[in-house]
Amino acid sequence: RFEKRIYIPLPEDHARAAMFKLHLGSTPNLLTESDYRELGKKTDGYSGADISIIVRDALMQPVRKVQSATHFKKVKGPSVSNPNIMVDLFTPCSPGDPAAIEMTWMEVPGDKLLEPQVSMADMLRSLSSTKPTVNEQDLEKLKKFTEDFGQEG
């Protein structure tokens, strides 16, 4: 019995854009529809697994911002215990911010920390450090194999 080999190409830009949205899920973020489209276009040659890695890294960017921050500022935000009540929270800021208070994340009470949301800048930073795992030569070999022995999916 012969196995059938089917070539399934890498996702197209609209599918990659949908993957970014899917992997972010319900995580609060600042991305717009046009950001997703731009990410889809910028990731030509990336596989679904590559996009998953980019998103996972981008999800860690706000945590890194909090951990490396030397200054925080007070902002109003929903209480952790009751989201209907607005309370003073602390979020990372630059030392030059007029409202900046010099402190580390360890000095911020746990229920008073407002983590920054994932932004397009976080995505682009993660994208710049993540290269596609499939290269052009691999794709050419797969296309040739498909032409000779297989079929397209």
From TrEMBL:
Keywords: ATP-binding, Nucleotide-binding. It holds the Pfam family AAA_lid_3. Residues 91-150 form the Spastin/Vps4 C-terminal domain. InterPro entries: AAA_lid_3, MT-severing_AAA_ATPase, P-loop_NTPase, Spast_Vps4_C. Residues 35-73 form the AAA ATPase AAA+ lid domain. GO terms for biological process: endosomal transport; vacuole organization. One of its GO terms (molecular function) is ATP binding. SUPFAM superfamilies: P-loop containing nucleoside triphosphate hydrolases (SSF52540). Belongs to the AAA ATPase family. This is Vacuolar protein sorting-associated protein 4B. It comes from Chlamydotis macqueenii (Macqueen's bustard).
